[in-house]
Amino acid sequence: MQERCYDKNKLCANLDYEKLSRSLRINPNIRSGKPCIVNTRIAVSDVFDYLGGGMIVEEVLDDFPDLTLANIQACFAFAADLDRRLTVVPYEVAV
Predict the structure, then answer these.
(1) What CATH number matches the domain at 8-85, 1.10.260.40, 1.10.10.10, 3.30.300.230, 3.30.565.10?
(2) For the packed helices 44-52 and 69-85, what is the interaxial angle rounded to 10 degrees?
(3) How far is CA 90 from the centre of its chain?
(4) Model confidence over 60-83: pLDDT tens digits?
(5) Is 36 helix (H, G, I), strand (E, B) or coil?
(6) Using CA atoms, how far apart are residues 37 and 46, in angstroms rounded to an integer?
(7) Is 69 exposed, middle or buried (0-12, 13-18, 19+ CB in 10 A)?
(8) What span, in angstroms and rounded, lies between the C-alpha atoms of 65 and 90?
(9) Which of 15, 21, 25, 37 could form a disulfide with 5 if both were Cys (CB 3.0 to 4.6 A apart)?
């Protein structure tokens, strides 16, 4: 299967699609199809694991010199868009 950019039609209208597609790719042959930063094997989830583990953005950039601030911003934009599109179905208990 061929590598693809994010489908503009599925993203929130206020995102900068070109910037996002220059930074992130989904390739089923890389990291099992997880969204990754272009030209790396670093997944969006990896960036959030590092940040959630206590690293600050500058430390992530120092540890991964191929990354840029724009790459990390693209990860945040991607995650924010996923959150906006998340549908939560309330669980109702019959009485």
Answers:
(1) 1.10.10.10
(2) 100
(3) 26
(4) 999 999 999 999 999 998 898 888
(5) strand
(6) 10
(7) exposed
(8) 43
(9) 21
